[in-house]
Amino acid sequence: MLNSCTPAPGIMIWVGIGYLSRTPLVRIAGTLNTQRYISEVLDPVVLPYLQGLATAIFQQDNARPHVTRIVQRFFVNHQIDPWPARSPDLSMVSQ
């Protein structure tokens, strides 16, 4: 039995979608942190996916693991220029 102070176990699913393609689904059990985001999502999934596209815009939300300095450095090192999370031209919320 879980009491109100015990976090419930969870599963997060991450996927990247494009106009005519998508990445594989990534199942993340537990809490996603910066290191796990890089080692389980960015490095093995996002990099190969973006490298296989002629043109791509990478956009993510402002979740803490997505905006840390380590992740920003990863983007710079791999020449990824993420689009702003709340960009009016790509956000369905603003339309």
Describe the structure.
By secondary structure, the chain is α+β, with helices and mostly antiparallel strands. It is 33% helix and 8% strand. It is built from three helices and two strands; from the N terminus they run ββααα. A two-stranded antiparallel ribbon has the order 1-2. The longest helix has 18 residues. It is globular, with a radius of gyration of 15 Å. The model has no long low-confidence stretch (mean pLDDT 83).
**Order of strands in the sheet with the most strands?**
1-2
Number of DSSP helical runs: 3
Q: Major β-sheet, in short?
A: 2 strands, antiparallel
* Rg of Cα set: 15 Å
Low-confidence stretches: none
| Order of helical and strand elements | EEHHH
Query: Structural class, from secondary structure content?
Result: alpha+beta
How much helix, percentage-wise, in residues?
25-40%
- End-to-end Cα distance: 43 Å
Mean pLDDT over the full residue set: 83
User: What overall form do the CA principal axes indicate?
Assistant: globular
| Oligomer state of the chains in this structure | single chain
Number of strand elements: 2
Beta-strand content estimate: 5-15%
